[in-house]
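Work Package 3 (structural annotation) set out to generate three-dimensional models for the target panel prioritized at the project kickoff. During this period the team completed the workflow that converts sequence records into discrete structure tokens, so that structures can be stored uniformly alongside our sequence database. As a representative example, we reproduce one entry of 97 residues exactly as it appears in the project archive.
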Amino acid sequence: MDITTRSVDPIGSFFAPSQSIVIPYLSGQMTEQQYTRLYEHQLNELKIKHPEIWLAMIGLERATVVCFCDSANFCHRFVLARYLVEMGSTYGGEIDA
């Protein structure tokens, strides 16, 4: 499931960080901590405004989320995974490609 800002996936696109978060981070104007805080805020807003999207995501038997992040140390996938685990999903780890 593509969770990037260019995603066309009907569920994944909801979990993509907004351009207002991605662009400043990629240009070095935002720290990982600031990015994470803003992305968490975005996810919390999504929980309130579109709970059905969260239910659809955690209702999947299995899901793999993908993006273009080049670092296994910091990525919005990890933030999303933590949220999904808090909601009852199981995190299976990273897949080496």
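The mean pLDDT is 89.
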